Amino acid sequence: MKIIHEPLRYAHEEGHTDVCYSADGEHFITCGADGDVRIWSVDEMDDPNHTCVGELALSVCQKDDKIYTSTGNNEIQILTHPAGERDGVFTRATDPFNQIVICRNKNFAAVAGEGMSVTVMDLDTSVAKISLSDLGAPCLSVAICPNAAKLAASTGDGKLRIWDVESYSLLKEISCFPKVNSFANAKNLCRLDFEPKHGELLAYPLKNVVKLLNTTTWAEEELKCPEVAADFSVLQYSSCGKYLAAASLKGDFVIWETLKKTVFQTSKHDASNAICGLMWNPKGNGEIVYTDVEGQVSIMSNCSRLQPVDNEEISTEVEKVDENGFTENDVDFGDFLEEEKNEDTDRASPEVLDFGTLDTSSPGSTRRPRTPDVPMQSPFMPTSTPEHLDPRYLCWNDVGVVKGYGLNSGDEANQKTIEVEFHDSTFHNSMMLQNFQDYTMGSIGKGALAVANSSQIMVIPLAVSNKEWYLKVEEYEEIVLVAASESMVCFAMSNYLVRVATIFGTQRGIVSVPGPPVCMAAFKNALLVAYHAGPVRNSDQNIIIKLFKFEGLNVDCFELGSALGPESTLYWLGFSDIGTPGMMDSLGMLSLFPPKCNTWIPFCDTTKHRRSPGDGFFVTTIFESNQTIGGIRCKGTVYPGFVPRPTVCELAIEPPFAETATDKTQMEMNMFTWSNLNIQDTERKYKETALKIFALACKNDLDQRAFEFMQLVGNQQILNLGLKYTTKLNKRRLSEKLMDLAAVLQEENGDADDTPKSFHSVVSTTEMQMPAQAVIKPRVGKLSISKLTPKTKKTKQEGSQQDFETNTPISNENNLSAVNSQDSLFSEDQSVSDETLKAYEVVEVPRNPFLKKQPTEKARDDLNETKSLTPIFNPFLKKAKKTGSASPLSLTDKNAGISYETPDAKQKSTEVGEKRRLADAESEKPVGKQRKLNQFMFSKRQ
Predict the structure, then answer these.
(1) Beta strand pairing status for 456-461 and 628-634?
(2) CATH classification of 4-8+95-301, choosing from 3.40.50.300, 3.40.50.1110, 2.130.10.10, 2.60.200.40?
(3) What is the pLDDT of residue 415?
(4) Which CATH class is domain 392-562?
């Protein structure tokens, strides 16, 4: 017999509406968005009794002579039954209560709170027996087993949790529901229900199927209906436990026989509205009352089998009527057929004869428990919000924000639009598109905007916005992912293919991934694709990431693996601002794949920066060059809202070392980060931090740690500074070790310049000395007049000297160190005594390595030959002294006893002028101290 629906009756305003039967089955009670509670009579068509409890009523249930209803005032009020008069307040909280469920056999009530908590309360004393908080998301639904031994709840983070009430311990956690940030935004209510006899089976909806979870063995079974494609939202067992009713978001009703796991009846809502409330009549007469999101109420009849059934259909029913929990009005024919079944065992079916070997404690028991199935993660777009939200973000990255409005609206009259905002208004103006094609995916890059539905993609090049192009796929293909960058547009298909096109529409390639695509991101000519490499293993997603690099029409591929945590899912995938691949899992751990390391390295635990367990961090981009992560802090959810407009904040990139609160660990984290990532302007900080770590170890008398750290750094300049520090502290043994280490590094580097080892300064500069020049020195003593020459004055000799000398300081990328090649031409090592050097003696000029073009050998020979024939005078003397000089003691010769030399070339890196010294002095005297002259010299006043 088909299900019969009574005419729909108006009950409440449009919005969420809940319904329940009274314990005697003579009345049903509704509550809705208008804040009223109405008590209806089943047999009479009179107007109901109604009581206003507030601005909003979310849930209602009845026990004994009381009615419990949760209101928008964050409290549960008590009303009398059937009069409906106020009888006090059961409990209060800081957030609304989304559902109230009464325990069948005990006087307890389970309450699901918006404030991420679940509470079991005593109905007599209003005292909480157990309170579970910090669930990570708002609690949408709750269920308690008949004996109050187990508690189950569904939360907005998509998880089903089951606890043991006595020990407060979490028994099971399953990710199976769509994610949502609040009960008001939830389309799927994710209702749960325990089997009413023993409570070992828990029923919960999973898309368009219903799962039966054995809470003892954790084995799962499925109840399917091929005629229903919409997701189930609410469900409930009948009071006898033989039937299970479920309703979908499209108004579908399905009733299964739980023993046979077969569909008993199906039906449809007259207006195909989503069902938000459903309950069996406790009389066991096969009636179900339900409400929809339009605030209407109706009753279905003929929902169970009332006539006697044959022996085969009830052969598995072995328990007595009173143990099944039947009420007086229930009809059960097990006792009538028990005697006949025992006398006719010769004709009994094999199932009857073999039933004794099965576990009869539950009708859903199996011989061998199966491993519970964890669904594979569905495809998603990075930096986008779930599809069931409206409005929603299609993409949010470092270029701009793509918003979709009215994407889930079934009414064609509602206008569907896509809005694009750019962070930099000088880069491009905002855009508003009419979404006539129902585009549900979007991605924006520096080159183009790409939006797509399951069969078509539209690309708008940002350089010329009026040159959009379209591309349709075959009927048997379906677009599941889209990614755009500054030079290409990619879209992944349901048949594991990824098509690649240029910004203006040229198809440049196609690649295949060995599994269903999960997520995809593009950067310039690189593409990251995450896919399922196999089924779920021990609740761990088997996701692998591949990196495709396109050069012209060629393609190269690298497999990167993944860095997913235990029992987690992929949450974000993308590139940093300089092209380093990155990913983040649902546990909040963000990892990067530096090309230098060739492995995934965790660089930020976003959960360390949240204020409460329910908060999340919505990643938008990674600024690797600035050592920060850009994103949005989400309070009580993992996705940002629309109003008020979210504010983008930044988190520091810090690897999750142990004891992060200490200064030592902070410095170690910075050293590790600077050594592996490409971060700007870190060379000076790298040296300072390294010396601080070394000094901290020396200060604490940890010489072995200090020496070990210097070995890790392996830098000559830092080693020299550390050696000076140990010498100052009088640590001789450590100084000796550092000197030995310095000798080893000197041999390995080949006298390389001291440069810290980092990601962006790999090649160290080599110290180079200026070659010796030809020097002509007179025999007489001389006094330098460099201090008398103004520093800003540039002589002709200096100009001529710069023609032969090249000032080329060698430095690394961050200007760490420069080679000083501007040594004085009159340094001490080039001074020669008068006894060994004759006047006008010529020294051959060696090859100058600083000249861009070296003279040929013939030219050098000619130059040497000319110099040997022609006397060469010192170009640095203002006036060359003649060979036959007057007596040094002459009073008539103004040049007697003194010679003038020009100051050294004032080159860029020279800050100190020429020092005074005697011609034949072998040692340098302290500056400012009177020198002893070997001969009497003076200068004549002009």
Answers:
(1) unpaired
(2) 2.130.10.10
(3) 80
(4) mainly beta
